[in-house]
């Protein structure tokens, strides 16, 4: 082990709130790696208490550390609060109290951060405490620290990726084995990927919270979850997956945050979560299971890709412990982690005005002039067509149209108008598209 002379700081006393999937792994690693962590932090990092709902349900944990009174544990003689309960209430008040009293906070709670990071940072500033949350987005992947620190000197233009493991696990299974939605979701819960209420995953709330956090850090602007356009995967059907497959594409739930420049040159931020069809050759198309991957584009750095385990107890605990060592080091050496950076305050662009591309798959009457009629509706909405594929059946035909970029509202209106045409039997699948086909 490293010479003990480097571990001469005052013991850092840690309160752990919540001991479920992630908390249990944090408690295990903190105990098993105590000496290593002390050497890295420069001081012993000691688990001073664990708040759980039912202490009698945790015979595996050191009984003298357990309490069911999280508020009292926060107020006790601890230096750092590690919050792994989740949700907004009552956690928000506990963390505000901790920060105002100078106790640093490490949390994986994206739902809380996506709505209340401004007041949490303000509380941290009032006492000089630290607020770290690497585990809140893309689990084990170091992503927030690069955005907050490594790229602080660059101008980020886009952050796009898969940031919800549960939905990626489900979509990957639907695509590869044709497995059913419900059974795959149960499996994701059993493996510890899904949120306590998995509708947060499948309806896109979790990915929207993460998009809000990413957009805030990338664009130095306060973006909350309610600013993020959100669509989940519950409407992704077997027909959508089949339509994608037929064209060499796959379906992924993406969080997309980008700087958008208006015609007047004014910049705004677009933050959105929705299913996307990607060419199978796209690097994000091959991200399977609960893995996450995020592309960051910046003016000077160019394109960066971050990839790894986005969910699960041990991977998430890795990010939590990394933050804990950072916080402990700051205490030992007297420094402080980054504060909120929201100086740019760019406006958030409504989804309708955000440029997107659509893939539209139609079942149409198989007679002359149908393609021209459909094309006319696109033209009437000033949506330009990038590619068309027609396949004849008996007395109907399948028509697949991929558009160029157009305002999302214009695309939506086009699809609505097409659905009402006499020659269109059915709008089989509509999905946004990213990436170029090879
Ligand atoms: N599971 C994962 O893969 C990831 C989870 N996260 C986040 O980490 C946090 C924890 O997630 P999980 O460990 O998966 O959740 P979990 O549901 O397994 O664990 C939460 C624990 O908190 C306990 N709890 C609830 N109210 C409490 C109270 N008043 N006092 C003490 N304990 C209380 C629950 O009994 C439960 O054991 C959440 O914010 C989640 O969004 C972040 C990244 C990945
Ligand atoms: N439920 C989340 C857990 C990690 O953030 C997910 O599936 O990604
Ligand atoms: Na992370």
Describe this structure in words.
- The chain is α/β, with parallel strands linked by helices.
- It folds into three domains: 2-139 and 313-333, Rossmann fold, CATH 3.40.50.720; 152-309, Dihydrodipicolinate Reductase, domain 2; 352-433, Alpha-Beta Plaits (2-Layer Sandwich).
- It has helices spanning 21-32, 34-41, 70-75, 91-100, 110-127, 144-150, 165-176, 181-190, 199-202, 205-219, 238-246, 313-333, 370-380, 408-419; strands spanning 12-17, 45-51, 66-67, 80-83, 104-107, 131-132, 156-162, 229-230, 249-261, 267-279, 291-298, 302-309, 355-356, 358-365, 385-392, 396-403, 406-407, 424-433.
- Strands 7, 8, 9, 10, 11, 12, 14, 15, 16 and 18 form a ten-stranded mixed beta sheet that branches. A six-stranded parallel beta sheet has the order 3-2-1-4-5-6, sandwiched between helices. The protein has a two-stranded antiparallel sheet with strand order 13-17.
- The longest helix has 21 residues, at 313-333.
- The N and C termini lie far apart (52 Å).
- The relative contact order is 0.13.
- The structure holds 1,4-dihydronicotinamide adenine dinucleotide, ligand LTNE7NMQ and sodium ion.
- Residues 17-23, 51-53, 70, 84-86, 108-110, 135, 139, 192-193, 195-196, 311-312, 316 line the site of 1,4-dihydronicotinamide adenine dinucleotide.
- It is an enzyme of class 1 (oxidoreductase).
- L-homoserine binds at residue 195.
- The active site is at 210 (proton donor).
- Belongs to the homoserine dehydrogenase family.
- GO terms for molecular function: homoserine dehydrogenase activity; NADP binding.
């Amino acid at each position: 082990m490293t010479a003990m002379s480097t571990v001469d700081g005052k013991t850092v006393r840690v309160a752990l709130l919540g001991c479920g999937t992630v908390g249990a792994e944090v408690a295990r690693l903190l105990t098993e790696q105590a000496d290593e962590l002390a050497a890295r932090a420069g001081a012993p990092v000691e688990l001073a208490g664990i708040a759980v709902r039912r202490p009698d349900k945790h015979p595996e944990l050191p009984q003298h550390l357990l309490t069911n009174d999280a508020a009292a544990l926060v107020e006790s003689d601890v230096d750092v609060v590690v919050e792994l309960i989740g949700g907004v209430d009552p956690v928000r008040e506990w963390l505000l109290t901790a920060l105002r009293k100078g106790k640093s906070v490490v949390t994986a709670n994206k739902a809380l951060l996506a709505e209340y990071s401004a007041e949490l940072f303000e509380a941290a500033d009032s006492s000089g405490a630290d607020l770290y949350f690497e585990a809140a987005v893309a689990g084990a992947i170091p992503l927030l620290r690069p955005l907050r620190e490594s790229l602080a000197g660059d101008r980020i233009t886009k952050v796009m990726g898969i940031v919800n493991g549960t939905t990626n696990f489900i979509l990957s299974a639907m695509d590869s084995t044709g497995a059913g939605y419900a059974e795959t979701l149960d499996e994701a819960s059993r493996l510890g990927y899904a949120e306590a209420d998995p509708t947060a995953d499948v309806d896109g709330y979790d990915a929207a919270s993460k998009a809000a956090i990413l957009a805030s850090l990338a664009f130095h602007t306060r973006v909350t979850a309610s600013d993020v356009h959100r669509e989940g995967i519950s409407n992704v059907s077997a027909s959508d997956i089949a339509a994608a497959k037929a064209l060499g594409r796959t379906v992924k739930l993406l969080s997309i945050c980008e700087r958008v420049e208006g015609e007047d040159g004014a910049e705004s931020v677009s933050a959105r979560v929705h299913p996307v069809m990607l060419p199978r050759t796209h690097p994000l198309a091959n991200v399977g299971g609960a893995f996450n991957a995020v592309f960051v584009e910046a003016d000077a750095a160019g394109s960066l890709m971050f990839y790894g385990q986005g969910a699960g107890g041990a991977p998430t605990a890795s990010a939590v412990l990394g933050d804990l060592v950072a916080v402990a080091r700051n205490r030992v050496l007297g420094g402080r982690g980054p504060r909120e950076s929201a100086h740019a305050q760019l406006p958030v662009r409504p989804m309708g005005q955000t440029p997107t591309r659509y893939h539209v798959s139609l079942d149409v009457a198989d007679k002359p002039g149908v393609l021209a009629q459909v094309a006319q509706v696109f033209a009437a909405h000033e949506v330009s067509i990038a590619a068309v594929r027609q396949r004849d059946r008996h007395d109907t035909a399948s028509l697949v149209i991929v558009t160029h970029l157009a305002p999302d509202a214009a695309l939506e209106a086009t699809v609505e108008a097409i659905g009402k045409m006499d020659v269109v039997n059915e709008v089989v699948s509509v999905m946004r598209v990213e990436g170029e086909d090879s």
